[in-house]
From TrEMBL:
Domain of life: Eukaryota
Family label: Belongs to the methylmalonyl-CoA epimerase family.
Entry keywords, A to Z: Cobalt, Isomerase, Metal-binding
Organism lineage string: Eukaryota, Metazoa, Chordata, Craniata, Vertebrata
Region (Disordered) residue spans: 1-24
Protein name per Swiss-Prot or TrEMBL: Methylmalonyl-CoA epimerase, mitochondrial
EC number(s) given by UniProt: 5.1.99.1
Catalytic class of the enzyme: isomerase
Function: Methylmalonyl-CoA epimerase involved in propionyl-CoA metabolism.
Length: 164
């Protein structure tokens, strides 16, 4: 019984491992998508959220940093393979303030993925009719150029691209 079921599963595994790679269907590009840099979470109480990750879950957590040009305070939670970015409104015109008006308890705000050439990415994405929410990259929380892609063009997800 066991031997025959192991024998029947063998060809399936070989078939899967020898199947064509998904990347063969993707045209070559002037820029390359990199690793997930962070997942951003809007929070109504930054100190409570910071304490959850630091004191309850035991994560390494940064101090809060004000980014007035983006209208946010940020805190980064270090994880083994990526980071969480806790976002809280800075000023009345903060995009996080309007997000929290609709989502009182907070929630996922955006994902950030690294790219090796943000200018080339912008050019190509515009050609593919993906809306970019600014004309030029802005300097993000890590001191690197960033852009945001319109969520309606990205299946409901606000996507941040950051120069690696």
């Amino acid at each position: 019984g066991l031997r025959s079921s192991l024998q029947t599963s063998g060809p399936t595994l070989r078939t899967l491992s020898s199947s064509k790679s998904f990347s063969q269907n993707i045209p070559s590009s002037l820029w390359k998508l990199g690793r997930l840099n962070h997942v951003a979470i809007a929070v109504p109480d930054l100190e409570k959220a910071r304490a959850l990750y630091k004191d309850v879950l035991g994560a390494q957590v940064s101090e809060a940093v004000a980014l007035p040009e983006h209208g946010v305070y940020t805190v980064f939670v270090e994880l083994g393979n990526t980071k969480l970015e806790l976002l809280h409104p800075f000023g009345e015109k903060s995009p996080i303030a309007s997000f929290l008006q609709k989502n009182k308890t907070g929630g996922m705000h955006h994902i950030c993925v690294e790219v090796d050439d943000i200018k080339a990415a912008m050019t190509e994405l515009k050609k593919k009719k993906i809306r970019i929410l600014s004309e030029e990259p802005k300097i993000g929380a890590h001191g690197k150029p960033v852009i945001f892609l319109h969520p309606k063009d990205c299946h409901g997800v606000l996507v941040e691209l950051e120069q690696a």
